[in-house]
Design brief:
By secondary structure, this protein is of the alpha/beta class. It has one domain: 3-Layer(aba) Sandwich (Rossmann fold), CATH 3.40.50.300. The structure holds cytidine-5'-monophosphate. Cytidine-5'-monophosphate binds next to helix 3, helix 5 and helix 9.
Length: 228
C-alpha cells in the first residue's frame, strides 16, 4: 500500500437500514470524485452465496468460509454500480427481503466480520473514499477524518422503503416492512461484534425531517472543514 493510499481521507456514513445513507454516500462520492464502499453489499453477497450453496446460516464456520472466499467484483456502468458474484450480476438479488434478513444474520457472526475486514480496508484509495455501513467509523476506518451517523425514525424508514418498492412495482405491506426494519435494527444494535452505534467522534444527523439535499449539504460542509 502506498503512502497516498494509506492516508487517503475517508468519510464514513453509518446508520440503520433506510436512513438514506446509501443515497448520500453515492451522491457524496460523485461530488468529491471519491471511491465508494457499500459495505452492506459485502454482507448481502455473503448471505446470497450461503443461501445459493444451501448452507444453514447457523453453521458459522461454513458461512465464514464463504465470506473469506467470495468471488466478487463491483462493476460500474453508466454511473450505476453492479455487484457480480461468481461472474453473475446479482445486483437485484441481493436487495430481496430474504437476502436482507439473511445478511443481518450473517453479519452477526464475528468470523464473517473478520473475514471481510481487510477487503473493506482495501477500498481506501486516493483521492479519498466514502464508506457506507454500520461500523465504518467505529471498526473499519477508526481514523477517518469525517464520521457521520445518519438516522431516521423506523416509521419514516419503512415508508421510504415502501415507496421505493412500490415505484418498482413490488407489492408489500407497510406493516411487514416496519416489522422487518425493527427486527434488523434490533439485531444490528444488539449483536456483540461491531454493533450499530455512532463512533464517539461521529456527527449524528437525523434525516426524518430533512430531505436528501439538506443532508448532503451538511455533510459537504463537514468535509470542507475537515479534509484538505
Ligand atoms: O446497508 P445494508 O442494508 O445493505 O446492509 C445489509 C446488512 O448488512 C445490514 O442489515 C447489517 O446487518 C449488515 N451490515 C453490517 N455492517 C456493515 C454493513 C452492513 O453489519 N458495515
Amino acid at each position: 500500500m502506498t503512502e497516498l493510499t494509506k492516508n487517503a481521507p475517508v468519510v464514513t456514513i453509518d446508520g440503520p437500514s433506510g436512513s438514506g445513507k446509501g443515497t448520500i454516500a453515492k451522491l457524496l462520492a460523485d461530488r468529491l470524485g471519491f471511491a465508494l464502499l457499500d459495505s452492506g453489499a459485502l454482507y448481502r453477497l455473503t448471505a446470497l452465496a450461503a443461501l445459493n450453496a444451501g448452507v444453514d446460516l447457523v453453521d458459522e464456520a461454513r458461512v465464514a468460509d464463504i465470506a473469506a472466499n467470495l468471488d466478487i467484483r463491483f462493476a460500474i456502468a453508466d454511473g450505476e454500480v453492479s455487484a457480480v458474484l461468481g461472474g453473475v450480476d446479482v445486483s437485484r438479488d441481493i436487495r430481496m427481503e430474504e437476502v436482507s434478513m439473511a445478511a443481518s444474520r450473517v453479519a452477526a457472526v464475528p468470523a464473517v466480520r473478520e473475514a471481510l475486514l481487510q477487503r473493506q480496508r482495501d477500498f481506501r484509495a486516493a483521492p479519498g473514499l466514502v464508506a457506507d455501513g454500520r461500523d465504518m467509523g467505529t471498526t473499519v476506518f477508526p481514523d477517518a477524518p469525517v464520521k457521520i451517523f445518519l438516522t431516521a425514525s423506523a416509521e419514516e424508514r419503512a415508508r421510504r422503503r415502501y415507496a421505493q418498492l412500490q415505484g418498482r412495482g413490488v407489492s408489500v405491506s407497510l406493516r411487514d416492512l416496519l416489522e422487518d426494519i425493527r427486527a434488523r435494527d434490533d439485531r444490528d444494535m444488539n449483536r456483540a461484534a461491531s454493533p450499530l452505534a455512532p463512533a464517539e467522534d461521529a456527527v449524528v444527523l437525523d434525516s426524518t425531517d430533512i430531505d436528501i439535499e439538506g443532508v448532503l449539504q451538511k455533510v459537504l460542509e463537514l468535509v470542507q472543514q475537515r479534509v484538505v
